[in-house]
Amino acid sequence: MNIIVDYGLGNIDSVSRGFRKAGIETKISSDIDEIKQADSLILPGVGAFRDSISALDKLGLIPIIKEHVSKGKFMIGICLGNAITL
């Protein structure tokens, strides 16, 4: 499953529509268990870098995302989501 990570910041609906138009099935989630099971993660983002990192940290998602990437699983960051992944 392709999970669009919902951490409270980002243009989630626009990203979801874009993938749907491209014929790619996604699910929006902030659930740690779902994110852990994802084949690929999509990390959208808008706004301030510090706010985004803080939101991800509060939800406990930073180590989950790092683990996902360390396993060689696919992840795409969009806009600020890309900057966060650097």
From TrEMBL:
Entry keyword Plastid: no
GO molecular function, one term: imidazoleglycerol-phosphate synthase activity
InterPro entries (alphabetical): Class_I_gatase-like, GATASE, Imidazole-glycPsynth_HisH
Pfam families cross-referenced by the UniProt entry: GATase
Pathway membership, UniProt: Amino-acid biosynthesis; L-histidine biosynthesis; L-histidine from 5-phospho-alpha-D-ribose 1-diphosphate: step 5/9
Chain ranges of the Glutamine amidotransferase domain: 4-82
UniProt cross-references to PROSITE patterns, sorted A to Z: GATASE_COBBQ, GATASE_TYPE_1
Lineage top rank: taxon: Bacteria
Gene name for this UniProt entry: hisH_1
The enzyme's E.C. designation: 2.4.2.-
Listed PANTHER family: IMIDAZOLE GLYCEROL PHOSPHATE SYNTHASE SUBUNIT HISH
Subunit note: Heterodimer of HisH and HisF.
Gene Ontology terms describing biological process: L-histidine biosynthetic process
Catalytic activity line of the entry: 5-[(5-phospho-1-deoxy-D-ribulos-1-ylimino)methylamino]-1-(5-phospho-beta-D-ribosyl)imidazole-4-carboxamide + L-glutamine = D-erythro-1-(imidazol-4-yl)glycerol 3-phosphate + 5-amino-1-(5-phospho-beta-D-ribosyl)imidazole-4-carboxamide + L-glutamate + H(+); L-glutamine + H2O = L-glutamate + NH4(+)
Keywords: Amino-acid biosynthesis, Glutamine amidotransferase, Glycosyltransferase, Histidine biosynthesis, Hydrolase, Lyase, Transferase
Enzyme class: transferase
Protein name: Imidazole glycerol phosphate synthase subunit HisH
